[in-house]
Amino acid sequence: MVLKATVNCDLGEADDEALMKTIHLANIACGGHAGDFATMNKSVRWAKEHGVLVGAHPSLLIARALVDDELVACFVSQVGSLCGFLRMHGLQLNHIKPHGAIYGQMARSDDLARAAVMVCKIFSDSDHQVAFVGLAGTAHQRAAEELGIRFIPEWFADLEYSPSGQLLITQVHASVTHDNIRARVIAILSTRVLTLMESSGANIREVTICCHSDTPGAVGNAQLVKSLVDESNRVAGF
């Protein structure tokens, strides 16, 4: 089986306009770890120009653990801000993908993941559902399925995974060679890399591959991943 794939990027920290030309999904920082009214407005405008689907990339606003209700409110304040700019430019919110450490914590906590996915429900309506992007076979996927929200599994082209398949999230993203990226992407598109996640009960039919905007050589990395994804989708008839 070949996976239908897209390329996504966490934006709001680097050369967003150049990256917007090479991706399918944009995760736009909306005031937590990065992003303000100017960067959100520019990013949404560029996404519209290049036909890119826009997602919110919320983070924690305070340096302490939040209870579930606080987390929902924290995310709603950021996502709502981005939605204002989407409405201004005539676009809809496609998905939500939490940022950084909270993304990893939610993968291990059903309660936190459920709180984040609840934000997708808040911004969905009868005509349009907001998806959740996360790690397959984790609390991310369980929460989305429990709450009836479309789940988009994610894999990272420029981060390392442990031998057990756990994502290793780092504050600083080291450079990655194109040979390593090519090998990783080809592996995931053939589903060989997803065997660990599948063994945990994950139902995998699609994948979105992330390239970080603050990784050295980000634009070239994204261009390489996009070319591999486009070719795989073409051959598979997607």
From TrEMBL:
InterPro entries documented for this protein: Glyco_hydro/deAcase_b/a-brl, LamB/YcsF/PxpA-like
Family annotation (Pfam families): LamB_YcsF
One GO BP annotation of this record: carbohydrate metabolic process
Protein name: LamB/YcsF family protein
The species this protein was found in: Collybiopsis confluens
Lineage of the species this protein comes from: Eukaryota, Fungi, Dikarya, Basidiomycota, Agaricomycotina
